[in-house]
Design brief:
This protein is of the alpha+beta class. About 35% of the residues lie in helices and about 30% in strands. A hairpin with a 3-residue loop joins strand 6 and strand 7. Helix 1 runs parallel beside helix 2 and helix 2 packs antiparallel against helix 5.
Length: about 160
């Protein structure tokens, strides 16, 4: 990992810019309202960007066309929480128990079969988040959408020069 201190607003803005055309092809809009407080993380920017792009790509793939996908940044104790919220196929209780396991993919919706994959993206995202001192967090309800988030160690602006 190439750890540095970065502004999570820059992370989200870059990911949104990179995924804008993919989202637009599905009629989606990616919204982001920057937080009031600065959110600086100590992590690997490129690896964190890869996690966020993966979460956005999943939201785009598994959300019906012409929807809004929201990205947010929040403070969660000693971590910054970066979240992607969609109104897609959601997660069943059995999905929630299995998300993040290697090679696992949901099978309850035809849209899953229309989008090929290995079932490794979320597993790898979780491993990268953990290597950086964070974690992958997910929630959702079947047919009502999902929230996929990851945490990164926060930099205390009051005690450290940026």
């Amino acid at each position: 990992l190439q750890v540095s201190v970065f502004d999570c607003v820059d992370l989200v803005t870059r990911a949104r810019d990179l995924m804008k055309s993919t989202a637009r092809a599905h009629g989606h809009q990616i919204t982001f309202e920057p937080p009031e407080r600065p959110a600086h993380a100590r992590a690997d920017f490129e690896q964190s960007l890869a996690i966020l792009i993966g979460l956005l790509d999943n939201a785009i793939r598994y959300t019906p066309d012409a929807a809004t996908i929201s990205v947010s940044i929040d403070h969660l104790g000693s971590h910054v929480l970066v979240s992607v919220v969609d109104t897609g196929i959601g997660l069943s209780p059995s999905d929630l128990a299995n998300v993040g396991k290697p090679y696992w993919r949901a099978t309850h919706q035809p849209v899953v079969q229309e989008n090929p994959g290995s079932g490794l993206r979320l597993y790898l995202a979780e491993q990268i988040a953990r290597l950086q001192g964070g974690e992958l967090i997910f929630s959702g309800e079947l047919d009502k959408g999902s929230t996929f988030s990851f945490t990164l160690p926060v930099v205390d602006e009051s005690s450290e020069a940026l």
